[in-house]
Specification:
This protein has 237 residues and is an all-alpha fold. The chain is built from six helices and no strands.
């Protein structure tokens, strides 16, 4: 194989790699546009999840940029002079934006945590109040008819207590069962809060670390592509 054939083969391989790189970048841009449109600014959950989705798609963008810059000043179309210069500056912009996303993500995670707690607390209070009201009605009922009326009101169905049943024991058993339900609800609520908090912390750490690493990589790309910003690409160089 002659030197000319080797050069032609290398140019062809470089062109294919750069073409794949441009394709990956276009796909990444389209993906991000679908993520952020329509925007829901001031919605902490949307912002938090969108930042995470963007961070998880950054590897494709980085791979695309690396492929586009492959063989630096090799044989390129004239328009690539502008594209490579723009990509270099966009890498710096991406690094800055990713660094700004970190405090935003932390702030949104706190807002989401408080919103989730408020929702859980409201549900917990409603359930606890309903059980407490039922318990108080039962405690105030003494006769079989009164206890039956309370049970019927609660179940919304006709309740008939047989004469052979010890109504006071029945009343005590129901109150004990209600207390156990209250305790279970309290335990489940605490467990649910802990699970939500743990998941939120893991997601926040994962996406913030990803954003930090990606910001560093974008900055290094910007720094190492100074030739694209200050020089005109000339295949004869």
């Amino acid at each position: 194989m002659t030197i000319l054939q080797n050069q032609e083969r290398q140019v062809f391989s470089s062109g294919i790699l750069r073409l794949v790189g441009y394709g990956l970048l276009v796909m990444a841009i389209i993906d991000v546009l679908f993520l952020v449109i329509p925007p829901q600014l001031m919605n902490p959950l949307w912002e938090f999840q969108t930042v995470g989705a963007i961070v998880e798609r950054i590897p494709v963008t980085l791979l695309g940029i690396v492929l586009v810059y492959y063989d630096e000043r090799g044989d390129r179309a004239p328009i690539e002079t502008f594209i490579l210069k723009a990509l270099s500056w966009l890498s710096l912009v991406a690094a800055i934006l990713l660094m700004l996303m970190i405090p935003l993500n932390i702030s949104n995670s706190f807002r989401i945590y408080h919103q989730q707690n408020a929702t859980v607390n409201a549900q917990y209070v409603n359930q606890k109040d309903a059980i407490q009201k039922f318990k108080e009605q039962l405690k105030a009922a003494n006769s079989k008819d009164e206890i039956g009326a309370v049970l019927q009101q609660q179940s919304k169905e006709e309740v008939s207590i047989p004469n052979s049943v010890n109504t006071q024991k029945l009343k005590a058993d129901i109150i004990t069962s209600l207390q156990n339900n209250q305790d279970n609800i309290t335990s489940q609520t605490k467990s649910f809060r802990a699970q939500k908090r743990s998941l939120l912390i893991k997601q926040c750490l994962k996406w913030n670390l990803g954003a930090l690493i990606a910001a560093i990589l974008f900055f290094m790309i910007w720094k190492s592509t100074g030739w694209a910003r200050i020089k005109t690409i000339n295949p004869e160089d």
